[in-house]
Amino acid sequence: MSNSTPLSLDERPALVLIDLQNGILGLPTVHPSEDVLKNGARLAEAFRAKGLPVVRVRVAWSPDGGDLPVSRAAAGAMTQAPPAEFSEFPAELGPLGDDIVITKRHWGAFTGTELDLQLRRRGVTQIVLGGISSSIGVESTARSAFELSYNLVLVQDATTDTDAASHEHAFGKIFPRISELGTTDEVLALLK
């Protein structure tokens, strides 16, 4: 998949990585999660080197499960919170340093969090986005970012899903309508 227009970065982009955490990285994915993590780490290192914001988003809930999403969906609802280790970031993402950490309790990183505030106070106009899952956390975040008027770049090789058809639908139908599409190497080249 390629853009019909050249990929571009604003003067003040932020890297936002969705759910690159131990519990999610352990799930079976369409593209190897090790590769997605490696590309996410390469992007994070480059953004940090340029003094640009890196946002690590994780999904977590209180041990008592009191903040679990309430759902009457056909697929059922979560009934208990996973253990704390589920939400820990892997060492491969590098030291936490000045990275912004956002803990979400729903699919999207904007719902019920301070992500928009953190980005706007830093003058961010564009989000470079990757993570797991393309059709859930990444897509929900991308849709909200688009609605909030952020420019978007979806990094194809830093994003995957647990379902091939859902991944293809997100990148084939949804993301081209709301964002630019690029690879890790393309984004890194623009950062130089």
Fold and architecture overview:
With 192 residues, the protein is of the alpha/beta class. Helix content is 34%, strand content 19%. The protein has six helices and six strands. It has a six-stranded parallel sheet with strand order 3-2-1-4-5-6. The longest helix has 17 residues, at 33-49.
What share of residues is helical? 25-40%
Rg, Å, rounded: 16 Å
Largest sheet: 6 strands, parallel
What is the overall pLDDT average?
94
SSE blueprint:
Blueprint: E1 13-18, H1 22-25, H2 33-49, E2 54-59, E3 100-104, H3 115-121, E4 126-132, H4 134-147, E5 151-160, H5 164-178, E6 180-182, H6 184-191
Helix pairs in contact: 2-6, 4-5
Task: Provide a compact summary of the structure.
The chain is of the alpha/beta class and 192 residues long.
Based on the model shown, name its key terms.
6-stranded parallel beta sheet, 6 strands, 192 residues, alpha/beta
